[in-house]
Amino acid sequence: MKPNHTIVFCLTGFVLCSLPTVAQNMPSATSSTTNGVLIASGVKTGNTLALSAAESPDHTTLLQLLKASGLTKQASGAGPYTVFAPNNGAFTEFSKEELDELLLPSSKNRLIQLLAYHVVKGRLTSDQLRDGQTLTNLTGQILTIHKQEDHITIEDGRGTVADVIQGNVRATNGVIYSINKVLQAASAKGPVVR
Questions:
Q1: In angstroms, rounded to a whole number, what is the distance separating the alpha carbons of residues 134 and 126?
Q2: What gap in Å lies between CA 137 and CA 149, rounded to an integer?
Q3: CB within 8 A of 135, min separation 6: which ones?
């Protein structure tokens, strides 16, 4: 079976990456589902996040934002990092006008902060994540992990809880979790980081 691919974003030396997506009909040793949420187990890309760069229909909005931030050219060997990558559906809380505003050169610093909010230093696989665990992201803010068996969620500073759609995707310089919400700091007003 030919794998699908999922794009994730990476910051401070990361770039969007094409990562094999574990299909739901693969054997349970490779993936499991909990309440309809797919959790991949140990998928490896064999490349750095930068070398795995490609497009994905599930993360085109994230790719567009990452390119606008100017961070794609800094993708060379930094890490390890854990990346929580919002899929296209996660950005539906933003209006077209709000997304367009983030793409403006005058919004570059806000955009970098928004993207950096989704990255944590270190290589954290799902077996290392515990219910109630707090992680400090690259902006210095706290993210809280919630874990019930194989179902993992992550809570941001506003109290928004994102489901991990795919996790434990391992690149040589980090671990990626695809999520269904955009994470933001408590001080964010509305859906756009101010």
A1: 14
A2: 24
A3: 82, 120, 124, 142, 143, 144, 145
pLDDT in tens, 2-60: 344 433 344 434 433 444 443 332 333 334 444 444 445 567 767 655 444 344 567 77
Q: Determine the 3-state secondary structure of 170 from DSSP.
A: strand
Q: Is the peptide bond before 191 cis (omega within 30 degrees of 0)?
A: no
The CA distance from 59 to 166, in Å, is 13
| 176: β partners | 83, 169
Provide the sign of the torsion angle of the four alpha carbons 40, 49, 89, 181, taken in this order. positive
| Distance of alpha carbon 15 from alpha carbon 9, whole angstroms | 6
